[in-house]
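The methods section describes the discrete structure representation at length, but only in general terms. The central task, working out the structure tokens from the amino acid sequence alone, is never made concrete. Nothing conveys this as quickly as seeing an actual entry. For illustration, here is how one protein appears when written out as sequence plus structure tokens:
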Amino acid sequence: MILFLLVVVIGLVTPNFLKPVNLGNILSQTAVIAIVAMGQQLVILTRGIDLSVGSNLALATVIGGLTYQQIDSAPLVMLAMLVSGGLVGAINGTVFVYGRLPHPFIITLATLSICRGLALELAPGHTTMRGMPDAVSAIGNNWSLGLPNSFYVVVGVALLLFVLMKAMVAGRWIYAVGGSPEAAKSMGIPVKKVLLATYILSGLCAGVGAIVLSGRTAAASPLYGNLLELDTIAAVIIGGASFLGGRGHLFHALIGAVLIGVIRNALNLLGVDVFWQMIAIGLVIVVAVEADVLRNHLEARARVLQAGRMS
């Protein structure tokens, strides 16, 4: 509802906003955030957080760029990015779960720095590498049926994760672990494996985001993904997920990503300075988090009242 009202208001204030080309640009510009945010959503559902997604994406593009320098093969380049992203996710999950760390904040903060450093070290000249296979560039740049190809990638990832979360036992396990890890463990759910899987999936989503971004720019860069972790966390929280875990719908992360894209696009059309745009996104995050706190408080009060009536 907020997104709908926002689109209506912005459309009245800036007529150019509702032009099909501009709406397509919003979908293209938010594709990477949306893809990576879906992976972030899985982690947050389990009461975790993945701060490494931006650096993970940058490292994946560099790995893809280095692969392209050796062989001009789109499947191999994309596979290299996916393997890179999934491997970082596996490291995050393994160290957190089996290293018995108190919170994933610690390991993902470490890999945020490690991945960025590796990306800068591996990139020739520590800078951007130009060139990507034509098929990769088509994914990030071309349009089909009036929509950017990256939009179809977002839909594809969303459908796969939707099937996982709604039609498979593993999806129910993720919600159960986020709702109460102790209760999930007592029910026989493999909590450690579930947690590890969510971080691997988050890493794979970063790899898919790397494919889209490197295709859109026809380049690989160790500087990509700067502050992407904040954008994805913002998208998930704005979309209605809870840091307390066990709450949130996959498509809510998509709505949150589009909401961020709409706000930024509108501020650009209105000529608002980029620094004020950062402030605006920050304020939206604060409002979303406070709304989550208020919702949890009201729900707790409602449960108490209902229990009192039943007794």
Notes: The mean pLDDT is 89.
